From TrEMBL:
Residues 2-80 form the Threonine synthase N-terminal domain. PROSITE patterns: DEHYDRATASE_SER_THR (PS00165). Pathway: Amino-acid biosynthesis; L-threonine biosynthesis; L-threonine from L-aspartate: step 5/5. NCBIfam families: thrC (TIGR00260). Its cofactor is pyridoxal 5'-phosphate. This is Threonine synthase. Keywords: Amino-acid biosynthesis, Lyase, Pyridoxal phosphate, Threonine biosynthesis. Its EC number is 4.2.3.1. It catalyses: O-phospho-L-homoserine + H2O = L-threonine + phosphate. The lineage of its organism: Bacteria, Pseudomonadati, Pseudomonadota, Alphaproteobacteria, Sphingomonadales. Residues 87-324 form the Tryptophan synthase beta chain-like PALP domain. The modification N6-(pyridoxal phosphate)lysine is found at residue 112. It comes from Sphingobium wenxiniae (strain DSM 21828 / CGMCC 1.7748 / JZ-1). PANTHER family: THREONINE SYNTHASE FAMILY MEMBER, THREONINE SYNTHASE-LIKE 2.
């Protein structure tokens, strides 16, 4: 499988190169040259398969030329063997038509583990082949940082430096990062906001000498391999609810548009997806874009769902490219316009292409709280605030009543205990697998939010390229 850039001028690359590169050299994102196609019989044949076997079947066409089937199976077994539920992503029934797809049974209690555990395995495999080394530098508002650190801790070919804004991530999130003891893991608390931390990371990537010397790499959701890993659970869930005979709708709490774009990919591959609901909190750029064609950046408002407090959605470009007719040169112009003015209109082709599958809903704090209470009253389920945004939108969805509606539950309620307690009066306990989190010793550096301080810290500890 070859991959092309959404901006039309970077060279086409195979899966291995795309995984290690992250962003394309023209500033675009990589997407498969064409979508693999699954017939109804191919989908029927997934019935009853384990999560790992489903993953091998669904991902195999995306990795041809880079990984054989047996290698892919080994990597999936290693990645998903670390989940605490045998089904990896189990379905839970809420009422006669609403279901939760629980994506939080990985080591750090949020759905990002599903993709990052596999990405850790892929990095190790590809870097060993090349006898190369990577330095991952990232900024996190919580979930990506802990999932990425867990995925690469102790690996020989990778060092990771993770910046978080001091005092602005939850205690559980911070401890999941700072109590990991491995010689290749470095946590840095920055005196500043998440945007300051993010700007420092960007500045390091833009410093071409620094970036080359340490072979910098990113783990944010622009990496194609992360999206690919997320396509699997759409198949896994839909097959259990009757696909290919019966179509299924999904509601997805959305920030960077990675998770819901994976659902779009599943539909392009032939999975009968009746509707994809893009559920946003009050930071609603995606809702405005999909309902009115207005993609203009506002101010980020902090909410109880920090992983969705986003005003620019990095993966949306992939949808604009594919739904708008795959014209990379035109999209490059459109995106440069957006980068300059912080606003753009979707073209008619992009709007029509998107409206075939997507709907969108903006959910405020009251809507979120009501969904949490409903899940508890209807089915005894304590859900996290992000999942509640998805569930509120799912319950407002306009689809044929015979279609099952699956809400993606993206985090364990215990990861956001304070917000859950405020909304429901119940404080969810930490699951046993992270039980001693508050007894473990923390270790992290505190640095001022300056380029000089952070680059000096990294340069002293990272492994330069041979
Ligand atoms: C990252 C995250 C999201 C948003 O996912 P995107 O792929 O960025 O749209 C939603 N919920 C939780 C708990 C997350 O960590």
């Amino acid at each position: 499988m070859q991959y092309v850039s959404t901006r039309g001028s970077a060279p086409a690359l195979g899966f291995e190169d795309v995984t290690l590169a992250g962003l394309a050299s023209d500033g675009g994102l990589y997407v498969p040259e064409s979508w693999p196609s699954f017939s109804p019989d191919d989908i029927r044949a997934l019935a009853g398969l384990s999560y790992v076997e489903t993953a091998v079947r669904v991902m195999a066409p995306f990795v041809t030329g880079s990984l054989g089937e047996e290698e892919l199976r080994e990597l999936c077994e290693a990645a998903y063997g670390r989940f605490s539920h045998d089904a990896v992503t189990p379905l839970v029934q809420l009422d006669h038509r609403h279901w939760l797809l629980e994506l939080f049974h990985g080591p750090t209690l949020a759905f990002k583990d599903v993709a990052l555990q596999l990405l850790g395995e892929l990095f190790e495999r590809f870097l060993s082949r090349r006898e190369d080394h990577l330095t991952i530098v990232g900024a996190t508002s919580g979930d990506t940082g802990s999932a990425a650190i867990d995925a690469v801790a102790g690996r020989a070919k990778v060092d990771i430096f993770m910046l978080h804004p001091e005092g602005r991530v939850s205690d559980v999130q911070r401890r999941q990062m700072t109590t990991v003891r491995a010689p290749n893991v470095y946590n840095i608390a920055i005196d500043g906001s998440f945007d300051d931390a993010q700007a420092l990371v960007k500045a390091m990537f833009n410093d071409a000498d620094f970036s080359r010397r340490f072979n910098l790499s990113a783990v944010n959701s622009i990496n194609w391999a992360r999206l690919m890993a997320q396509v699997v659970y759409y198949f896994y869930a839909a097959v259990r609810l009757g696909a290919p005979e019966r179509p299924v709708a999904f509601s997805v709490p959305t920030g960077n548009f990675g998770d819901v774009f994976a659902g779009y990919v599943a539909a392009q591959m032939g999975l009968p997806v009746a509707r994809l609901m893009v559920a946003t909190n009050v930071n609603d750029i995606l809702h405005r874009a999909l309902s009115e064609g207005d993609y203009s950046q506002g101010q980020v408002v902090p909410t109880a769902t920090p992983s969705m407090d986003i005003q620019v959605s990095s993966n949306f470009e992939r949808l604009l490219f594919d739904a708008g007719g795959r014209d990379g040169k035109a999209l490059a112009q459109q995106m440069h316009g957006f980068e300059a003015s912080k606003a753009m209109r979707l073209t008619n082709a992009q709007r029509d292409g998107a409206s075939k599958l997507f709907a969108s809903t903006r959910v405020d704090a009251d809507g979120m709280t009501m969904a949490m209470r409903w899940a508890y009253d209807a089915a005894g389920q304590i859900i996290d605030p992000h999942s509640a945004i998805g569930l509120a939108a799912a319950r407002a969805m306009d689809v044929d009543p015979s279609v099952p509606v699956v809400t993606l539950a993206t985090a364990h309620a215990a990861k956001f205990r304070d917000a859950v307690e405020r909304a429901t009066g119940t404080r969810p306990p930490l699951p046993p697998r992270v039980g001693d989190l508050f007894a473990r010793e923390e270790s992290y550096a505190k640095l001022p939010g300056t380029f000089e301080a952070v680059t000096a810290y990294v340069a002293e500890r990272a492994t330069p390229r041979a």
